Amino acid sequence: MSALEARITRGELENDKPLPPERDLMEEFGTSRTVVREAISALANRGLIELRPRFRPIVRKPDYGTLINATGTIVRYLLNEPSGVQNLYQSRVFIERGLVRDAALNATKEHISDLKAALLANSNSITNSEEFFQTDIDFHGVLYRISGNPVFPAMHKGFTSWLSPNWARMRRSIERNETVYFAHKEIYDAILERDPARAEAALIEHLRVAWGFVEETF
């Protein structure tokens, strides 16, 4: 597996292209079909290969999303610990505090436009909790993209994946959706006014209230 992984990470196997046929890999590495298939399966679990029924596996160049995906099984195991969900949620709060401060100081007109569009979608879906749930995720996703650092969008994807089972069990209502929307609006307004302290305070209060909703799922 390490030899095949090395060829992928060095770029010798082109991203988004099929792996060589199994027989070629068997000859190249001097091993059996079973070993080749086990290696492919292991690399797929780590996000370096995409498996597709009836087609050759596709090479996926490692990125920060690959790193997040590779830790998913371990994180989900840790979430079963008594304070697992709370620990992960608190780490999210810590990161987003910095992100909203950065957004208030450095967001461009394009970023503000993206955030405004996400807020509008959030408002328009208040009466539809399923749609609102997705627009809630999307609003926070914009905050993770504003810095331009690719690590943060990958982390947002991870938080969404790891915490979504708890989010899916939360009781939903129009009143709760309105509470979340107005919290988002307060964050947006603070960023628009270039006030990092206000943006951070709004974010902390928003996620404090949201944690109360999450706790109900335990």
Automatic annotation (TrEMBL):
GO molecular function annotations of the record: DNA binding; DNA-binding transcription factor activity
Annotated segments matching region Disordered: 1-20
CDD domains per UniProt: WHTH_GntR (cd07377)
Alphabetic keyword roster: DNA-binding, Transcription, Transcription regulation
Compositional bias per record (Basic and acidic residues), positions renumbered to this chain: 7-20
Record domain HTH gntR-type: where: 1-62
InterPro entries: GntR_C, TF_FadR/GntR_C, Tscrpt_reg_HTH_GntR, WH-like_DNA-bd_sf, WH_DNA-bd_sf
Keyword Transcription in record: yes
Protein name per its UniProtKB record: L-lactate utilization operon repressor
The species this protein was found in: Roseibium album
Gene transcribed to yield this protein: lutR_7
